[in-house]
Design brief:
- It is a single chain.
- This protein is of the alpha/beta class.
- It is 36% helix and 18% strand.
């Protein structure tokens, strides 16, 4: 069987379409996500994400990209020249794989016992959101609730910053009121991460059925969520800066919750 020639022209309709799909509006209009990178495609594939089309440039392949491409269905693969792929890519050093996929739509989970959730309200910066998803994966949270219309889960920058962790855990986007009602129905204790809190995060009880709530980079957690929270926790700031990057702040509190839970498990075992 002959190998199809790659698309070379930068004016090709497929290449132009991929460039347009960098826009959230265009992705939502088509109902697709754009996933780039071998690691990200591999994790999406392993999580059952449905690829509609995959665009590849073997000349750019890393070893990981070559391995992932070998597991793809041949019928969905379209070859691009290096110039065409680099135009379609949103990365400085692409590894030659880019997919259009059906957006995952996980349902709210059935959670039992001392579950730990991360609630992200209104985060807009892709790097921060992706980094928090990667941290949530590292901690092993039971689910991440992404609340607020400004958040674009399918942003290629989110997928890249998460290193594909967006696909390895249950990440659910939902309206604010739906999230609040569900959390109350499920008996979660809301812990608001906010700078004005009197309780330092390492002194806060973070075991049990807990939802850690973080707000946007500029506005912080809305008053609605702060008022609903049973506990507010803060991070000490001893220099001139008055706040931390939200992904750093979230990582500190998430890993403190993990430490407390592991310590509680060891205590019970003894």
């Amino acid at each position: 069987m002959s190998v199809p020639e790659p698309i070379n022209s930068l004016q090709n309709s497929q290449v132009k379409r991929l460039v347009r799909l960098k826009s959230r509006r265009e992705r939502e209009a088509e109902g697709v996500w754009l996933i780039e990178g071998a690691r990200e495609l591999g994790r999406a594939q392993g999580s059952g994400v449905q690829f509609l089309e995959v665009f590849a440039c073997p000349e750019l392949y890393s070893g990981e990209a070559a391995a992932v491409s070998g597991r793809l269905e041949p019928g969905i693969l379209t070859l691009l020249s290096r110039a065409a792929f680099e135009k379609a890519s949103h990365r400085e050093n692409p590894d030659g794989l880019l997919a259009l996929a059906v957006p995952p739509s996980p349902a709210l989970p059935q959670v039992d016992g001392a579950a730990l959730l991360l609630v992200l309200m209104g985060l807009e910066k892709p790097g921060n959101l992706g980094a928090l998803l990667r941290t949530a994966d590292g901690v092993g949270v039971d689910a991440v609730l992404v609340v607020g219309e400004g958040t674009d889960l399918g942003n290629p920058g989110v997928i890249r910053a998460s290193q594909g962790s967006l696909f390895t855990q249950r990440v659910i986007a939902l309206p604010e009121q739906v999230a609040l009602v569900w959390l109350r129905e499920q008996g979660f204790r809301l812990v608001a991460c906010t700078p004005e809190a009197a309780t330092l995060y390492w002194n806060a009880p973070l075991t049990g059925r807990v939802a850690l709530c973080l707000g946007s980079e500029h506005g912080g957690l809305p008053e609605t969520w702060r008022a609903q929270a049973e506990l507010r926790v803060g991070i000490p700031m001893r220099g001139q800066a008055d706040s931390l990057n939200v992904s750093v702040a979230g990582a500190l509190v998430l890993y403190e919750a993990l430490r407390q839970r592991q310590q509680a498990t060891v205590s019970v075992a003894k």
